[in-house]
Amino acid sequence: MIGLVIVSHSNKISNGIVDLCYQMAGKNIKIISAGGTSDGRIGTDPIFIKEAIEKANDGDGVVIFADIGSSIMSSELAIEMLEKDLQEKTYILDTPIVEGAVAVAVQACMSNDIQEILNVAEEARQTRKIS
Amino acid sequence: MIGLVIVSHSNKISNGIVDLCYQMAGKNIKIISAGGTSDGRIGTDPIFIKEAIEKANDGDGVVIFADIGSSIMSSELAIEMLEKDLQEKTYILDTPIVEGAVAVAVQACMSNDIQEILNVAEEARQTRKIS
């Protein structure tokens, strides 16, 4: 199953997203919180993210959700530190961190197809909340 | 100053968004967490949200950030319960809850113009994280 890593600048946000995803998608999926710095401050930490990616991977690869600014750069640095094999199946998704993670967690329980995951992430980015 | 109310299904997410917004925008603005149910479970609660809107309002109105599904409906119910005067200056923003709240918190510190707030929220919705 594809694993999820949540990279908010706040570990409260990341931990809350993990709770919400498990509530919506069930507990069969690996969703790892990598929010905040490793000592709990606001920020992001490439090494902390790298370790989360390794934990989230069960062989099928990992998708990363990031919030603002440097969370993307820290995630890119984390991917550079991975073994080549895992590097090639790790993706940063261009989707809102909360809304995208919930949608993808549900999808990842149904299918290992990375293209379908990317489509669901993009759909979450484009869906309007208020019609 | 326009106040912010954060309505995630998870109070960890809402509390984390408040922390992150204060970090980015400074402490001069009212940002109230109304995530989760009033007893801390995953969900949303119209009465809890109504009280948060009243706390966030200093006379200039309030904007609400919601995450998924019923958070919009609970926010709409909360607005219906408000006094008419506050009701008319409370808006639910169609923007990602984390990314939109941070962008709007920064903008709200600079201007009370609701149209500018709506524009910033829409920009946060449309901005791609990965170019």
Average pLDDT taken over every residue of chain A: 97
Largest interface: A-B, 29 and 30 residues
Q: In angstroms, what separates the terminal alpha carbons of chain A? A: 34 Å
CATH fold label of chain A: Rossmann fold
Tally the structural domains of chain A.
1
Note the beta-strand portion of chain A.
5-15%
- Rg over CA atoms of chain A: 13 Å
Q: Tell me the major beta sheet of chain A.
A: 4 strands, parallel
Uncertain stretches of 5 or more adjacent residues of chain A: none
Q: Please, how many helices of chain A?
A: 6
Q: What is the CATH level 1 assignment of chain A?
A: Alpha Beta
**Strand neighbour order, sheet with most strands of chain A:** 2-1-3-4
Please state the overall shape of chain A, judged from the principal axes of the Cα atoms: globular
Q: What is the helix/strand order of chain A? A: EHEHEHHEHH
Oligomer: homodimer
Task: Give the CATH architecture of chain A.
Answer: 3-Layer(aba) Sandwich
CATH superfamily of chain A: Phosphotransferase system, mannose-type IIA component
Task: Explain what the structure shows.
The structure is a homodimer of 131-residue chains. Chain A has helices spanning 11-25, 46-56, 70-80, 84-87, 97-108, 114-126; strands at residues 3-7, 31-33, 62-66, 90-93. In chain A, strand 1 (3-7), helix 1 (11-25) and strand 2 form a beta-alpha-beta unit. Chain A has a single domain (3-126), classed as Phosphotransferase system, mannose-type IIA component (Rossmann fold). In chain A, 50% of the residues lie in helices and 13% in strands. The first copy, chain A, has a 4-stranded parallel β-sheet, sandwiched between helices. Chain A is an alpha/beta fold and 131 residues long. Chain A has 6 helices and 4 strands; from the N terminus they run βαβαβααβαα. The mean pLDDT of chain A is 97. The termini of chain A are far apart. The A-B interface holds A 8-17, 19-20, 23, 35, 42, 66-68, 72, 92, 94, 96-99, 102, 128-130 and B 8-17, 19-20, 23, 35, 42, 66-68, 72, 92, 94-99, 102, 128-130.
